[in-house]
Amino acid sequence: MKKGTLIVLAFVLSVVFLFPVAYAAEEVAEVIIMESPVFEKHKKALVPLTHKKHNEEYGIACAECHHVYEDGKNVWKEGDAVQKCSACHSEAKAPKAKKGEPKLTKQEKIKMFYYSAIHENCVACHKAAKKEGKAAPTKCTECHPKKKK
Predict the structure, then answer these.
(1) Closest to 140 (Cα-Cα) out of 43, 65, 55, 66
(2) How far apart, in whole angstroms, are the C-alpha atoms of residue 79 and residue 22?
(3) Superfamily (CATH H level) for 31-143
(4) How confident is the model over 67-106, as pLDDT tens digits?
(5) Do residues 7 and 85 make contact, with C-beta atoms less than 8 angstroms apart?
(6) Residue 43 burial (C-beta neighbours within 10 Å; 0-12, 13-18, 19+)
């Protein structure tokens, strides 16, 4: 075999065998359990997020949930690295302001606290969907299944 033919053959074989592996790495789990290391203990049952269903059936774009903000604009695009929410929203839940202390704004809570960020993103979207007449859970127990004892 000629050297050029071997190079072409090696290239074709690498595409045939490596592409599926690379593609599989991009596959997203059907269901993602919304567990976060920022909580010592979860008080409610963990939310099973039907990731694929939200994206494919409900038509929710990736950048509706995944984000990287620069100058107040979400610059995250499909194909960019996905970080866990807790990478940025690294505190568990905002403490209640003590008497005489200033309260954190809603935006400050969302930026810092996992609980606020997740609930603002998910619950706000669910409420908006419900206003449009779509079926979307808006009560705690509709997303957080009863905890098994």
Answers:
(1) 43
(2) 12
(3) Cytochrome C3 (3.90.10.10)
(4) 999 999 999 998 999 999 999 999 999 999 999 999 999 9
(5) no
(6) exposed
